[in-house]
User: What shape does this take?
Amino acid sequence: MCMTLKATNENLPPNVIRQLAKELKNLDESPPEGINVIVNDDDFTTIFADIEGPAGTPYENGVFRMKLILSRDFPQSPPKGFFLTKNFHPNIATSGEICVNTLKKDWNPGLGLRHVLLVVRCLLIEPFPESALNEQAGKMLLENYEEYARHARLYTGIHALKPKNKSKTGAISESTTALNVDKSSTASSEKTPSMPPAVSTSSRAFGTNLQDQNPTVSDPAVVAAAARKKDGPMASKAPLDKKKMDARKKSLKRL
Assistant: This one.
């Protein structure tokens, strides 16, 4: 790749290469207003530039990339200009070719790259419908400027709009965090087995519930045990005292 680019540069005379290197360095260090030149030291035959749409025109807020192609006999012959970004303009063909007198009959070898780039940007400010390459745009500009401007703004919005710097990272982060928390909760609930409802130990042990603490018992043995527990020692002592009284009565009769 590098060998190919070097060979491309060698197609130009050494004095032209030196002059171009000087111009490109100057454009890089002191760029014209609204123009950013993309420098490639290995290939001076194709020069790229980003042109900002001038304020107050249908191209405002757009960035349009263009290229200048230099022929072997440059600067004796003018460079050819093309827009790579689609736009709606009388002097720019649908193929991107630029029609401006500076690049045609008004060219002279003393004009530099800075002058050419400034002329192209000025073309976005003041089109020349009389020498239109895009006949539809030229006719519309002459007959109905508002309709022409609407079309041009539409193309700018679709193909050349500058990206906005505002970021929604914070909002995205918040929604992502909420989503992750929700997923974690769901996963946790899926992994944790469901526990049965708590049951009172005392209720389970005695077969009772909290609303019925005194169930009816029909077993006689249980009733007797409960009665003994309720009456205490006196209840069990009564039958023994009666037996003693009967025995004493029998003894008195014998006497």
Q: What stands out?
A: The chain has nine helices and four strands. The mean pLDDT is 76. The longest helix spans residues 169-191. The two ends are 149 Å apart (CA to CA).
